Backbone:
């Protein structure tokens, strides 16, 4: 076989290896979570959301081209105090009946740096909360775990993608009780997202 | 009757205070569930689940103080028994 015949084959193999993969973030183990913290002068509120879904298209050879959408079910937002949780879900705050989803959809990546299987970048995208869409930029860390799906979900082969992001939003930007109760409910909300998605083979 | 109400008021305060101290002296609001963290060793993600547990907070103490106050106040509606 001539070398010229091998080149297209090599090209095909490389293309197959570098093809973008779709990662599904519906977590069968239930560990995916988003933590929120509000630290007001009179009260500190900490809670988490667990019902997280969405898909992300990730190319290990080109992490900067990552695209996707992550969806958090508003009703899954939980705080340890039952009355606080009731208030949080009510129409005075998040109105989870009217706005059942909190979403983030990527638009672009900047400052992409990859070391080993870990990529850090600043992701810009559309964040939808309480029915209001705002463009935000947040630092994100993507960890690509090749062939690790079977270690997490027996009888399934494939890869994992772990996404971690920490960022701060202002509830007033999302029209949530604007200018009200600022001594008890902080206007700024610290968010921390830790999620893993699977791409089965 | 007066003494009984004062005694109940003192008991309410004592039981509420002891319960609050024994359960960890939570200085926040009362919680009916607590966070339990589990580590997913493959991804390194700390999962959060909630376990049902009653953790009285400062509102619980406040309610006990108010309750004891009402009982103590009510005791003054009853006359002191004069010893002859």
Residues:
């Amino acid at each position: 076989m001539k070398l010229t015949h091998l080149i297209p084959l090599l090209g095909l193999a490389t293309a197959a290896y570098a093809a973008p993969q779709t990662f599904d973030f519906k977590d069968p183990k239930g560990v995916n979570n988003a933590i929120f913290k509000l630290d007001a002068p009179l009260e500190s509120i900490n809670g988490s959301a667990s019902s997280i879904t969405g898909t992300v298209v990730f190319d290990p050879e080109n992490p900067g081209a990552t695209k996707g959408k992550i969806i958090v079910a508003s009703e899954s937002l939980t705080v340890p105090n039952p009355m606080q949780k009731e208030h949080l879900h009510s129409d005075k705050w998040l109105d989870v009946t009217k706005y059942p989803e909190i979403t983030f959809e990527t638009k672009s990546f900047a400052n992409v740096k990859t070391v080993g299987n870990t990529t850090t970048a600043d992701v810009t995208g559309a964040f939808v909360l309480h029915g209001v869409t705002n463009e935000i930029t947040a630092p994100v860390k993507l960890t690509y775990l090749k062939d690790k799906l079977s270690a997490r979900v027996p009888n399934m082969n494939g890869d994992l993608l772990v996404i971690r992001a920490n960022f701060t939003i202002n509830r007033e930007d999302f029209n949530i009780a604007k200018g009200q109760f600022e001594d008890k409910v902080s206007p700024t909300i610290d968010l921390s997202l830790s999620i893993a998605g699977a791409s089965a083979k | 009757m007066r003494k009984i109400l004062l005694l109940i008021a003192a008991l309410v305060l004592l039981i509420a205070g002891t319960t609050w101290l024994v359960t960890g002296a939570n200085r926040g609001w009362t919680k009916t569930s607590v966070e339990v963290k589990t580590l997913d060793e493959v991804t390194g993600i700390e999962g959060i689940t909630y376990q049902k547990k009653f953790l009285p907070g400062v509102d619980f103490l406040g309610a006990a103080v108010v309750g004891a106050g009402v009982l103590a106040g009510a005791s003054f509606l009853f006359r002191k028994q004069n010893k002859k």
The helical segments of chain A are 3-18, 82-89, 149-152. The longest strand of chain A covers residues 101-115.
